[in-house]
Design a protein that fits this description.
The chain is α/β, with parallel strands linked by helices. It has helices at residues 11-23, 38-41, 61-75, 93-108, 157-162, 174-178, 181-193, 206-219, 234-242, 263-276, 294-307, 330-350, 361-370, 413-430; strands spanning 2-8, 28-32, 49-53, 78-84, 111-116, 125-128, 131-134, 137-138, 169-172, 198-201, 225-231, 254-258, 279-282, 313-317, 355-359, 375-383, 386-392, 400-404, 433-435. Strands 9-10-5-11-4-1-3-2-19 form a 9-stranded parallel beta sheet, with helices on both faces. The protein has a 7-stranded mixed beta sheet with strand order 13-14-12-15-18-17-16, with helices on both faces. Strands 6-7-8 form a 3-stranded antiparallel beta sheet, with no helix packed on it. The longest helix is centred in the last third of the chain and has 21 residues, at 330-350. It is elongated.
């Protein structure tokens, strides 16, 4: 099941909300459910957050409500259900809020209360005294008052809800939001005891939204109550945090493989250890030789990867100090690269890595060959003569990689390359996927 299921009334808003959840460390996808909610059912097992757009902002209220309820049914179960509405509250805010709450109530058999905190602080949308402001102005004083399809005649959030629903609403004022936490919890608890259906909360900052969501969860403790959110996205993310659903996106460690003996490479690896906390492991060699002992090297690297914390940097290097440099023949130089690559491949068969960085041309070629790659799809140059991309072909197809020669760059170049690799890996991990609707029969 998905952690979070979001019903959105248009695609643009759905994408923005999915991106917000992705930034909170959850894998989020948008899905078009305008022609059928069944597309949602196929996605809830693949993503933490599914944001389904019904394209119903300008539909009749009853049509929008029907679509919203269908999405909730198709995506159920979920730990949090959200109704994503327009930041300026245009469209079927009341109808969809009521529909989502009603469907969750029917599915859980529990009391459902809606937290409606429509502020979107980073976009200049704030709620003060239950009034929605756009860049500091009431909605009816802005251009949305002249919207051709859904002109806004009021900025009173409760009144906007009551245009399409009879749900009882209570305001959590700015004074309560910014006051002592215990008082805020008591305010919400009193509203719940009074049988309220919707809590409309003031907010001007992300911190305000977090305070309200955290207090709401605390106030509901011990009650058979399920929270639903209705907002443009930030309050839903805050509620997910308060419920413990978000997390810092983490993945396997990054692996640095160095077969270069240059002084510059050693300095770069030392700098990586100092600035980024990389853990360096020396490649074991055969007695009296610079050639790696494949079995011993595989064991050392395997243990290093198994013991690495999430998103750590593991360095596996043939040379780290002057004492590691030994005279080698041309034949031994070739064996060093092949043996190191074999150990890397064996270790990667047992342990995942988020990305790979190689330094040294011969070692890079040997590692790519050992991993069965046909080559690299180059995404760009990190610094001159240091490139980034992904492996093409083989069992590790698509693995992110950055690579450079042993004499490329300055002392900080390897740090720069690993920062780029980490950013690329994290963006890929958090990417907002998009799924098209299924064709109707």
């Amino acid at each position: 099941m998905a952690e979070v299921l979001v019903v959105a009334d248009d695609l643009t808003g759905a994408n923005a909300t999915a991106a917000d959840f992705a930034s909170a460390g959850l894998r989020a996808a948008t899905a078009s459910a305008a022609t059928g909610a069944d597309v949602v059912a196929g996605m809830v097992s693949r993503f933490d957050v599914v944001v389904a757009t019904t394209d119903s902002r300008h539909s009749r209220p009853d049509e929008a409500a029907t679509l919203a309820r269908a999405v909730v049914r198709a995506g159920w179960p979920a730990r949090l259900v959200c109704n994503r509405v327009d930041t300026t509250l245009r469209g079927n805010v009341g109808a969809t809020t009521e529909a989502v709450a009603a469907e969750v109530r029917a599915l859980t058999g529990s009391r459902v209360v809606v937290l409606c905190a429509p502020a979107h602080p980073t976009a200049g949308r704030h709620t003060i005294g239950g009034t929605q402001l756009l860049d500091g102005r009431r909605l009816e004083e802005t251009e949305v008052a002249r919207d051709a399809r859904t002109p806004m005649r009021t900025s009173d959030v409760v009144e906007i809800l009551h245009q399409q629903t009879d749900l009882t609403a209570s305001l959590v004022s700015m004074g309560a939001v910014t006051g002592p936490v215990a008082d805020l919890v008591d305010t919400i608890r009193s509203a719940l005891a009074g049988g309220v259906d919707v809590l409309v909360a003031d907010a001007m900052t992300e911190e305000h939204l977090d305070r309200v969501a955290t207090a709401a969860v605390a106030a509901a403790e011990g009650r058979d109550l399920v929270w639903v959110t209705s907002d443009p996205g930030p309050s839903s993310v805050a509620m997910a945090r308060a419920l413990g659903l978000t997390r810092t996106a983490q993945g396997p460690p990054l692996l640095v493989v160095s077969g270069s003996a240059t002084e510059l490479t050693r300095q770069q690896l030392q700098q990586l250890a100092v600035e980024r906390g990389a853990v360096v492991h020396r490649v074991p060699t055969l007695p009296g030789s610079a050639v790696p002992d494949v079995d011993a090297a595989t064991a050392v690297l395997g243990d290093a990867l198994a013991g690495a914390t999430a998103d750590a940097i593991v360095v596996f290097a043939t040379v780290m100090e002057d004492a590691d440099v030994r005279p080698t023949t041309a034949e031994d130089a070739a064996r060093i690269s092949r043996s190191l690559a074999t150990a890397v491949r064996r270790a990667l068969e047992e342990h995942a890595v988020g990305g790979l960085f190689t330094t040294g041309g011969d070692v890079t070629a040997a590692v790519l060959a050992e991993l069965g790659s046909h080559g690299l799809e180059i995404s760009g140059e990190v610094v001159p003569l240091a490139v980034a991309g992904t492996l093409v072909g083989g069992p590790w197809d698509g693995l992110h990689i950055a690579t450079k020669g042993g004499l490329v760059g300055d002392v900080g170049t390897t740090v720069t390359c690993l920062d780029h690799l980490r950013q690329t890996v994290e963006l890929d991990r958090r990417r907002v996927a998009s799924a098209a609707s299924r064709p109707s029969n």
